[in-house]
Amino acid sequence: MKTIPHLPWLFANRLFLAVAAATAATPTLSYPTRPVRLLVPFSPGGGNDFLARILGQKLGDSFGQQVVIDNRPGGGGIIANDIVAKAAPDGYTLLLGYFGPLAVSPSLQKLPYDPVKDFTSLGILASGYHILVIHPSVPARSVKELIALAKAQPGKLNSAFSGVGAAGHLATELFRSVVGIEIVHVPYRGSGPAAAAVMAGEAHMQFGSVSASMPYVRANRLIALATTSPTRLPLAPEVPTLLESGITGVNAQSWYTLLAPSRTSREVVDKLGNELRRIVALPDVRAQLARQAIEGQNMSSGEFTKFLQAEITKWGKVVRTAGIKVE
Fold first, then answer.
1. Could you give the angle at which helices 191-200 and 210-218 cross, rounded to 10 degrees?
2. What confidence score (pLDDT) does residue 312 get?
3. CA dihedral 327, 45, 56, 169 (to 10 degrees)
4. I need a labelling partner for 189 at 20 to 30 A (CA). Which of 17, 91, 252, 266 fits?
5. Cα within 13 Å of Cα(64), Cβ side
6. Has residue 23 got a pLDDT over 60?
7. DSSP bridge pairs for 127
């Protein structure tokens, strides 16, 4: 019987084409084919939840698949972070990352995940800033006057904050260490009670939420001295920044980002990242964020890694200098 000399080559060629066709049809390129879960490390109603629902709704509309917001409070955000760090890297479990459990917690306790190595950035960063407010009875109407008052009466001023290691607490500690004053910290159960304490005169000052504080500033129940933002905020254009007030080194922001588990395929990461960057640039999304004094920006994976490492170093120094401990 005669043999066909090129049969093995033909067979191999057909096999290669079949494998290539099968690979091209894998679910990775048609992602997503089912609902995506977006974990939020805190309870509904906060800034984290607000941002997650805006981005989740827009992503769902774009992809034709529901993005389910899964609020997982507990452990200062560590529980949700750990779930996503250990999730399958298939793009169906995402995290609304927050600076606390990613950049601050490494200095406060041993974590079950590595903030740098266990996550993949999806290319966006949303930054919220703080506003320094005082009770009207405090005899200061500028940051410099407040500093002079604190230096003249060491330990007499007290500052309200929502919890040990919380954003307002850290911003106050960073401010205190930079300007060299003594302030007594008074913890409250939440940012709302802390702000109420300042309005009632129980506390003298607070680094609070811009969106929550400004209505009380305009009602003359609080006096706004400065924001921690690099430039004046659209929500509070009349309030100078700390930089304008002559204070440098108090770059305090509560930032948010979207993350996937490490080892998530580049195709999925790119598809999510491209869509998120488009969404953050939409005028209606930017307007919604501006009303909460949140600014969105694009940030490559490499840029985010460097940014996160710098934030871990910065807040680690604040934690150590202030002797902050989680009880």
1. 20
2. 97
3. -40
4. 252
5. 4
6. no
7. 255, 295
In whole angstroms, give the CA distance from residue 160 to residue 187: 6
Listed in sequence order, the residues at least 6 apart from 282 whose beta carbon sits closer than 8 Å to its beta carbon are: 58
Q: Which residues of 19-37 are buried (b: 16+ CB within 10 A; e: fewer)?
A: eeeeeeeeeeeebbeeebb
How many angstroms separate the Cα of 105 from the Cα of each of 7, 185, 244, 304? Answer: 63, 20, 31, 18
φ/ψ (deg, to 5) at 167: -55, -50
| Token pair of 320 as six digits | 């150590």
Question: How far lies 53's CA from each of 60, 105, 232, in Å?
Answer: 10, 25, 26
Residue with tokens 């969404």: 279
- Whole-angstrom Cα distance, residue 194 to residue 319? 21
Q: Is the pTM higher than 0.70?
A: yes
CA-angle at 298, arms to 297 and 300, nearest 5°:
145
Q: How deeply is 237 buried, as exposed, middle or buried, from its count of CB atoms within 10 A (0-12, 13-18, 19+)?
A: exposed
